[in-house]
Amino acid sequence: MDWLSDNYIEVFGAITGIIYVILEIRQNIWLWPLGLVTSIIYVFVFFTSKFYADMGLQAYYVLISIYGWYWWLRGGKKHKANSLPVTRVSFRLATVLLFVFIILFMGIWLLLSKYTDSPVPLGDAFTTALSIIATWMLARKIIEHWVLWVIADLVSMGLYIYKGLYPTVVLFAVYTTMAVIGYREWNKTIDLEKGMM
After folding, report:
1. Which of 3, 21, 114, 134 could form a disulfide with 145 if both were Cys (CB 3.0 to 4.6 A apart)?
2. What is the pLDDT of residues 43-80, one digit of tens each?
3. Is 75 exposed, middle or buried (0-12, 13-18, 19+ CB in 10 A)?
4. Domain span including residue 181
5. Considering the entire predicted model, what is its pTM?
6. Number of domains in the chain
7. 39 in Cβ contact with 45 (< 8 Å)
8. Sign of the dihedral through C-alpha 52, 54, 57, 62
């Protein structure tokens, strides 16, 4: 009971995070406002654990939640309201995203190594850069974002074990499993859309 009272914010964040991924799998637009709540909680969790890049990532999640909410609601320029389709990443876009990932990773790693007391600057920079790319892809409903989440979640689990954030380790184990399920479910949506054409 003492442990729960000391870690209730982290536990609450883990619960809202799981609900967020369930909504993501179901392509439910309410994932975006819930993501705002979860991000605010994890700003505090990551700040107290000295995961500064992950803390900064939460501020990005606030902004991308607004962006994603718009895209999922309006469907972008080409689509009517509430009809943004699930798509696959093109080779050209994948190349651009890889380039952006490398720039983000190197920049974040440099900042964390030189200007913070982060105990794991390399791993923190890697998961942060990958999460930025994956969340942007989610906002545009690009199915391969699930693959990036599996990679980011597995690396994050190792980092959180190292820091003793055990509820967050459990959360990221659930995230990894749900990312596999999400990929399968979104893939069915793509197959259905192909069948309707």
Report:
1. 134
2. 777 788 777 777 888 888 888 988 998 888 887 656 56
3. middle
4. 2-196
5. 0.84
6. 1
7. no
8. negative
